[in-house]
Design a protein that fits this description.
With 151 residues, this protein is an all-alpha fold. It has one domain. Helices cover 50% and strands 0% of the residues. It has 7 helices and no strands. The radius of gyration is 15 Å and the shape is globular. The two termini are 18 Å apart. The mean pLDDT is 95.
């Protein structure tokens, strides 16, 4: 389990840090990506995150000196798959469960591994320029975000 997010305030800091581009780059970890997604899904349900997350991440990357290119920075397929998985995980928990506990539960499961998308996409397909730019369907097995929910 992650210990990066001991309280809901820790998750708030990451969600707001992404929006305001104030989160130190060293703290933009795999767990922080999911913490930000969960925070936005819970606290900004009116935002169409599939549309709003790409410019948020691109702007954050630029603010922290990361170039969004064909080989680095923002990745559309991974972002959209992660958002869908985070949404399914969030929906599987009671609405009053603290987000830090949900982040811990998510990170303790398959999504806690940064290579989790490779169960669905081959490495060549996932890390193609096309997958970085637009959503592409997996080539190894169908992607169902409900597979990550607590049962």
């Amino acid at each position: 389990m992650t210990t990066d997010f001991c309280t809901e305030t820790d998750v708030d800091r990451v969600g707001l840090g992404l929006i305001y581009r104030s989160l130190p780059k060293a703290e933009w970890t795999h767990a922080a990506h999911f913490a930000a997604a969960l925070w936005l899904l819970r606290h900004r349900p009116d935002w169409r995150l599939a549309e709003r997350m790409p410019p948020l991440i691109r702007a954050y990357n630029e603010a922290t000196g990361v170039e969004n290119s064909d080989s680095g920075g923002y990745h559309e397929t991974i972002t959209q798959a992660s958002l869908a998985a985070a949404g399914a995980v969030l929906a599987s928990h009671p609405p009053d469960r603290p987000l830090n506990e949900i982040v811990d539960a998510l990170m303790a499961g398959p999504l806690g591994r940064s290579d989790w998308p490779l169960a669905y996409w081959s490495k060549d397909r996932l890390f193609s320029v096309e997958a970085r730019r637009v959503w592409i369907e997996p080539d190894l097995q169908a992607f169902d975000p409900r597979a990550f929910t607590a049962r």
